[in-house]
Amino acid sequence: MTMLDQLASHPLALRDLIALVMLFAAWLGIGWFTERPPQGRPSVSVLMTRYRREWMRYFVTREPRIFDGNILASLREGTAFFASACMIATGGLLALIGNGERLRSIASGLELDPAADTGWELRLLVPMFFVANAFLKFVWAHRLFGYCAVMMAAVPNKADHPDAMARAMQAADLNITAARSFNAGLRSVYFALGSLGWLTGAWTLMLGTGIVLWVTWRREFASTSRQVILRSLPAPILPDRVSGPGGSTGSAPPPPPP
User: Fold this and answer.
1) Which residues cross the membrane (predicted)?
2) Does residue 246 belong to any structural domain of this protein?
3) Least confident residue range of 116-120, 146-150, 193-197
4) Which residue range is the domain that position 184 belongs to?
5) Which residue among 4, 21, 66, 165 is the one 20 to 30 A from 77 at the CA level?
6) pTM (whole model) above 0.85
7) Residue 138 falls inside a structural domain
8) Is 82 contained in some domain?
């Protein structure tokens, strides 16, 4: 019997459907709420956008700029590490899905029920979806950080140059967009771990979804790091005109959409 035949012969039970709906609703909901929080309670991801713009403001007048290049290199290294880890995890999940008989024998040894309403292959497809999505997000974030590096290199060395601050703000927008993609990849990794609970049943999947949702919300809206970030929050930079440290002004595009 092929994998497709096995999947077709194991229809989803109602509790499994409810658990899956909760999983994807929580994943999409926390992502939307993190990037579009209430005005009076911004998330850590939104708060950090001000610091990223502030970084590029001072980047214009910093000499030398090796410090900024090192920071950006560390950001790219982080995205590359997570992308590589997701690629390895995807290969492992594909190997498990392609070797269903051994997987069922291992499940029997662990006293799990391999003849449940849904097949083991289908249960592994859900975490593989999240891992694959995380891989794509990390790869795109890595490329955007590369675009940001090129844009930073195009900023003139003289702070009073008419294009200096405008290009710095373009680099900031690219940096912010890359960070959003990186954060989305991290959320996918969190929910991939939570979705592994489906291997032991729908109730475990619901519990794992609730735990991941609470952890993700707490880190964005009720963490100690958020309190530290709020201690000295930079003022928002107006999108129409930007004043540089040397008094120069330049046009700044509106911030990119989430």
Assistant:
1) 12-33, 80-99, 120-140, 196-217
2) no
3) 116-120
4) 14-231
5) 165
6) no
7) yes
8) yes
